[in-house]
Amino acid sequence: MNRDSRPWWRESTSEQRYALFAGLIGYMLDAFDVMLYAFCLTTIMKEWSLPPAQAGFMVTVTLLSSAVGGILFGVIADRYGRKLALMLTVLVFSICSGLSGLCQNLLQLGLARAVLGLGMGGEWAAGVLLISETWPSRHRGKAIGIMQSGWALGYIAAALAAATVLPILGWRVMFFLGVAPALFSLWIRTRVKEPKIWTKTTREPDAGGRVQRGFWEIFSPGLLRFTIISTLISAFVMFGYWGLFSWMPGFLAAPVVEGGAGLSMVKAPLWTIPMMMGAFCGYVSFGFIAERFGRRPTFAAYLLVSALLVWVFGSTRDASLLMLLGPFVGFFGSGYFSAFGAFISELFPTRVRGSAVGFCYNVGRMLSAFAPTLIGALSTHYGLGGALAFLALAFAAGALCIFFLPETQGRELT
Questions:
Q1: How far apart are CA 271 and CA 251, in angstroms?
Q2: What is the domain count for the chain?
Q3: Which of 330, 310, 334, 318 is nearest to 389 (CA)?
Q4: pLDDT tens column, 168-220
Q5: Domain of residue 287, residue span
Q6: pTM of the predicted protein model
Q7: The CATH number of the domain where 29 resides is what?
Q8: Which of 12, 19, 121, 331 could anchor a disulfide with 134, C-beta 3.0 to 4.6 Å?
């Protein structure tokens, strides 16, 4: 059979499939551990008598530390390998999830979530690098889109745990479930290989006989524009995302008089499952659509539709309409993340790709880290629904910024 007539996945090698599986499952487990707190949020608030701003600040702490983790593990990935970085990040966020279940006060929980954030931020960067450098350009967008869908799978798993475990065994047991992913690092160690392009680059000297690796190169004149704009885009879209999805379970469960949707604690997690099924489809489909129409227009279209949907979603209290809109909010409000892995990877050379991916994505996350706190504060004046509608501006700003970067569709990594 002619190679061009075969389905795209039939062209993959075992090395590429293992890399994709490692990135997919790693990101799924990352999402599971991180979103456990979002589903435990209202329960912890009641047990510890926390105001919404303080409860939201725990998410802010995690996001701030994730920015540090993303930069740190990006540098580790450049120096010591994508595989090692991925293993370490899985271990960090798994262990710290278990420690979260042992916390007795807000300070202890904040420390546990801060260290968990280090692994959370680094895992995405390590997985993206592994896949980007293993898969060819013609399928890179599809592969990273599939990896990104792991977030929706992890979110759904956390929602199911919240609907079944949380009402019976409480929030501490929920966090203990997050220790299990640590075992996945053993599989990564035995099956996953370092990308050949990274192995070759780390051994190649420059004209002066030195191996070319250095974090500060991403601020050099030739790369500075890419670094700044990629970071701004990341900040805008993650401000919208974390502001929306950190408070989504709380919005659905909060009484109507408080600006919420008025669903019960059991129904609220289940209500998010159709939304995450839509997100799964959005993540996977983005790569196929972007390879047909280009990375920039597809990214902008997803964000502009997100801006409209989040405003409508935050303004309605009709349960049937919320259920109908949920999959579309998930599809467009999450699917654009599939652009980041391929887009940032294709803008930077291999010797600093890990540093660039880690910095741009996670400093953007740091700048967006106050979104959950801001939404919590705004909710006291406008209700959660009104506060969520404010996020439409962030999505629109991200859509505008993408056109200040070049189109990278079909670009081979160097």
A1: 11
A2: 1
A3: 310
A4: 888 899 889 888 888 888 888 888 888 888 888 776 655 444 445 578 888 98
A5: 14-193+215-404
A6: 0.77
A7: 1.20.1250.20
A8: 19
